[in-house]
Amino acid sequence: MKKVGKLFNWLKPSIWLFILVSLLSIVLPLTYSYVPQFIKYVFDHVLDSTSAPNTLPIFIQNFFSQYAGLKCVIIISIVLLIFQILRGILLFVNGCVKGRLSENIAFDMRNKLYRHIQNLSYSYHNTVDAGDLIQRCTSDLETIKSFISRQLPELFYIFASLIIGAIQMASIDYRIMLVTLICLPITVGAGMIFFKIVNRKFEVVEELESDMTSILQEGVNGVRVVKAFAKEKYEIDKFTKSSEKFRDENYSLSKIMALYWGFSDGFVNLQYAITIGFCIYFAKNGLSAGDMIACVSYISMLVYPIRNLGRIISDFGKSTVAACRIDEILKIKDEYEVNGTQKPEINGDITFDNVSFKFNDSDKYLFKNVSFKINSGETVAIVGKTGTGKSTLANILVRMLEFDSGSIRFGDVDIKDIDKHWLREHVGIILQDPFLYQKSIYDNIAIACKNVTKEKVFQAAKVASIHDDIISFDEGYDTLVGEKGVTLSGGQKQRVAISRMLILNKPIMIFDDSLSAVDTRTDLQIRNALKLREEKLTSIIITHRITTAKEADKIIVIEDGKIAKIGTHAELSKVDGLYKALWDIQGALEEDFLNNANGDK
Q: How many helices (H) and strands (E) does the chain have?
């Protein structure tokens, strides 16, 4: 029942449309049920006036009794045509309402799911399988939409068709009605067994399709790496194996469905044969030709809906699996369920006080009791070996990750009391491998600010030392960067991302190794340009490049999960430790390179 509840939750916002569709689904078989009665009337009261009384409503019989012979047939034909036109209008209205219901459900599902995914935590997005997530947001959503808007109203049609058809047939001869329904329990029982089997199969097929989609997405996104390592055959084989598993399970599912449909068709044909046989038998005992034709016509109203019940059961199984997969995402708490409410002035004064952090799946602290202070307007470099938690500190500062103990304060306000949106509006972070949209360079820079002027875009690009590169392209700022910025070099992507962040004039900017792909001279140009900006900027630079760190007002060295040293370049380069060791290796080489470059210039 829980699975059914998850499925029907999506129906609530459009419940009135669903009720209207359901009512139309009940009315439609009622309108069809009188067509055989018209035919019966022609055979029994127009062509053979000695037949038994008709079951058409008395006012219709009185109307037709005014006419005789061919004239009556023509009148009946016209009435039947009008009747069918009205039924066609009902079918049209039913189709339109179903379409609106379908799209409303899809719209609500897409928006709710996408909104929830956007609000999920950084940790979730770091571990989620993107291919599986996309499948849940597309094919699973379509499965649910189709079932709720089309197959579910079909249930009302089936039951209405059964009841109305049985009543109409009983009005002719109740014995034939009972004979026609004799196979009903067997068909329903087979449908229930079929549902249990296919429901398990659908779960397996969905998982295999998800795996295949993930492999496909990884192969497409990583095609350059695949080619660089000549691993095309490996990727093709991996996809082929996944595709084979998906094919085999789908084939197995198809065999089960073919068995059911074969069994179902056999029963339908058997039911027709039995009913027609009894009609012939009863015809010898007073059943008229019109009665016999009407009864045979009503078989489809009783038998075929039950056959379609199997298809609905199949789709129901598919939909419950899809609903559970989507519900798994919606059950994950979004990061704003735990949020601060304050919106203080953020000017760059930051205090770390005994801050400790460990990942959820680890018992070991990445760093413990980390304490330091950053003053407004300072440029602070954070240096350490790979894996010491430098980027984690940056993510904690914008609350993409939550620390375990201690406190972080902006001015006098604890970070956990600050609204996350407000915090991120004032603290910018530029990643080592920034994401660029498949738009022009200009759009990528201006995307974060709706009403930005061209002059401000150009100025930001100049500060980030990317303006000259851009104007050298044939299309200039209108150059399309391609998917994820593939047409730009790593350094160019980083500088476009820096330009994008500079436009927002945030008082605090974190450069998470985001200058790693630019050369030393460009690195220096960017840092000097940042210092010359009119806006007071607090810069936190996470870097492996010592020549970048040496220009900072303060350098924080992280080692073995703690603060090893804090000081200026002049102080740290003279004291034995990690910083001095790195400076001895990198410093002389990079300074020689910089001096040579300046000499060439």
A: 24, 10
Chain-centre distance of CA 177, in angstroms?
A: 48
Neighbour-count burial of 118, counting CB atoms closer than 10 A to its CB (0-12 exposed, 13-18 middle, 19+ buried): exposed
Buried b (16+ CB within 10 A) or exposed e, 447-468: eeeeebeeebbbbbbbbbbbbe
- Centroid of chain to Cα 284: 64
Task: Find how far residue 129's CA is from the centre of its chain.
Answer: 12
In 3-state terms, what secondary structure has residue 398? coil
Cα separation, 360 vs 367, in Å, equals: 14
Question: What residues have CB less than 8 Å from 198, skipping those under 6 apart?
Answer: 253, 256, 257, 313, 314, 317, 318
**Which residue blocks in 222-350 are alpha helix, DSSP H?**
223-228, 232-283, 289-330
Task: Give per-10-residue mean pLDDT for the chain (601 aa).
Answer: 69 86 85 75 59 51 54 69 83 88 88 88 80 81 85 84 83 80 73 71 78 77 68 83 87 80 75 79 74 77 72 77 85 86 88 89 83 90 85 88 90 91 88 81 84 86 86 87 74 85 86 73 74 73 82 87 88 85 72 54 48
Contact predicate 355/405, CB 8 Å: yes
CA distances from 33 to 94, 298, 308, 309, 321 (A): 18, 8, 18, 20, 36
Global confidence as pTM: 0.72
* Count of C-beta atoms within a 10 Å radius of residue 557: 24
Which two three-digit tokens encode residue 181?
A: 């329904």
